[in-house]
Amino acid sequence: MDKLKEFKEYLNKINQYEQASNILQWDMQTCMPYNGGDSNTDVLTMLSSKSFELSVSDKMKDLLDNLTNPETFNNLDSISKKMISECKKQYDDNKNIPSNLYSKYIQVVSQSEQTWQKAKSDNDFKTMVPYLKEIIELTKEMYSYSKPNVDTYNALLDDYEKGITENQLDTIFKELKEGTIPLIEAISKKDKVNQHIFNGHYPIHLQERLSNYFLNVINFDFKSGCLAESEHPFTTGINSPYDVRITTNYDINDIRSSLFSVLHEGGHALYEQNINPKLVGTRLNTGTSMGIHESQSRFYENIIGRNLSFWKKHYDKICDILPSYSNISLDKFYKGINSVTPSLIRIDSDELTYNLHVIIRFELEKALFSGNLEAKDLSIAWNDKMKEYLGIIPKDDTTGVLQDCHWYSGLFGYFPSYSLGNIYSGQFLSQIEKELGPIDCLIEDNRLVDINNWLKVNIHQYGLMKSPTEIIKDSCNSGIDTKPIIKYYTDKYSKIYNL
């Protein structure tokens, strides 16, 4: 097995370049001074290009050819087989992409990310149009080499959620709309908590205390992770499970944005921190798909974080750190954080209208990649979709088309993962309740650790060893099924709003 040892050593070189890239990206989005953008972009481009070149080199081909030989492959352990299979797939996908094209893509995306932060602050969408146009063109060109016989948008979707297609999503999103829009319409006729009661002045250092408290509550491991501030919250597994970093963004006038983004990113982080350490160094030590990953973040943000039993245990902590919250009753707080009202910002939206935000982005992405929409017209199209689905129009691009970093980071095809995550989270909830009991009782009886352990045993530990389809099949004996999450929405909000 000398070739296997040589292969692992070669992979380690690639991993080191990627680890350095991840650390630099983290730095660039959390604490890098603005004037450091250009020089650090050059370094990031070099690191990413080097890891790409190694992954499609003649050396990689030689190693894979040797190890995929049936006589050798069939005698390997299961982790080695999966490691080699995943690397072979990645090699086959990327081997025909010219290295200079990949380097150009990385450079443009890095410049776009840095420019977006200022453009968002300045409400300046026009500055981003050339970047968007070039990113889309470069993406299409790269996929013409890697997957020439697959529609580019379907190829992007498959990269984030293996096996999913545009047609499947059309069907899934139709079911979600049919299952939630009547609820939204019924709730729109009901009285709601005045959201102004949450407005105040909440210093960042106090919100940081709250963030750390709730990360501890859900068992985030601070010895293997940390929390910082960024323009847009995100999670990165620098070297999972040993180094997993998350960020949030603080609104000094309202704690809810940072509070729920911390629970959301904390869910991502728990997934990465609970991956089997045996997968380190194999390139399998990451989540199996973005849909499964988002199921964990949405589970902790909503199914746990917006649960009344959870706040019966922890609301006093908010009142302790922020005394003005003592003037808001637990009942009003609970109804307030579950208020269903169309909003401009996706990450601050309620559970029911959230999926409409995702569908808007899905439909715009499809139009951009089909050629039915040009980048320069994206702002107008965005506002039209917001009016169509949510009945509101952004007052500016900062709260509209510039609010998310994804497209300006080249992450087309990512957004559907959020709603797939909601669907999966409903399936996991249904199975947990079958096996362990009602979620309300589990939280009330201090059994959050049992919930965590179920998720670790059935999902987290496997990393990339199992596909999304296998995770759902093995844990829930099912395929993708919207019924559990629609039942969760219906039961919960019918009770809150006396429907």
Could you tell me the radius of gyration in angstroms?
23 Å
Order of helices and strands: HHHHHHHHHHEEEHHHHHHHHHHH
Uncertain stretches: none
Helical segment count:
21
Q: CA-to-CA gap between the ends?
A: 65 Å
State the major sheet: 3 strands, mixed
Shape: globular
The chain-level structural class is mainly alpha
Tally the beta strands: 3
Strand content: under 5%
Provide mean pLDDT, rounded: 96
Helix content: 55-70%
Order of strands across the biggest sheet? 1-3-2
Task: Offer a quick outline of the entry.
With 499 residues, this protein is mainly α. The protein is built from 21 helices and three strands.
Task: Describe this entry's structure for a reader.
Helix 1 crosses helix 3 (58-67), helix 15 (351-370) packs antiparallel against helix 16 and helix 15 packs antiparallel against helix 17 (416-436). With 499 residues, the protein is mainly alpha-helical. It is globular, with a radius of gyration of 23 Å. The model has no long low-confidence stretch (mean pLDDT 96). The protein has a three-stranded mixed beta sheet, sandwiched between helices. The N and C termini lie far apart (65 Å). It contains 21 helices and three strands. A hairpin with a 3-residue loop joins strand 2 (235-239) and strand 3 (243-248).
